[in-house]
């Protein structure tokens, strides 16, 4: 029983995190306007009606560039706290970050040699 009381705030927060969006969706579904028309039901992107088949394939390079962006964006997330605590971490922190950046540079050179950064 004592363990359940210990985690009661976490359980309440979890329940609130699940219930509030469900309640908002239910309210929006009940009170939202419903006047569908053929014009409103047509798909569009940026206000421009689509021409032809909208199910064309994207190049794998598009997704590769997106993944590379995410990887190097995450790198920045790891470098910022390191830079803030640089003096307190000492030589160990410097060596650790040098290894981390070295691995990222190896990955960058690898994808560069493979031609992943070439846009055709």
Features:
3% strand, 120 residues, Methane Monooxygenase Hydroxylase, Chain G, domain 1, 4 helices, single chain, mainly alpha, two-stranded antiparallel sheet
Give the class-level CATH name of the domain at 60-120.
Mainly Alpha
Q: β content, as a range?
A: under 5%
Summarize model confidence as the mean pLDDT: 83
The number of E-state strands comes to 2
What structural class is derived from the secondary structure elements?
A: mainly alpha
Distance between the termini: 64 Å
Q: What share of residues is helical?
A: 55-70%
Largest sheet: 2 strands, antiparallel
Please tally the helical runs, counting DSSP H or I stretches of 4 or more residues: 4
Order of the strands making up the biggest sheet:
1-2
Shape: flat
Protein described:
There is one protein chain. With about 120 residues, the chain is mainly alpha-helical. The chain has a domain at about 60-120: Methane Monooxygenase Hydroxylase, Chain G, domain 1. About 70% of the residues lie in helices and about 5% in strands. It is built from 4 helices and 2 strands; from the N terminus they run H-H-E-E-H-H. Strands 1-2 form a two-stranded antiparallel ribbon. About 0% of the residues are buried. The model has no long low-confidence stretch (mean pLDDT about 85).
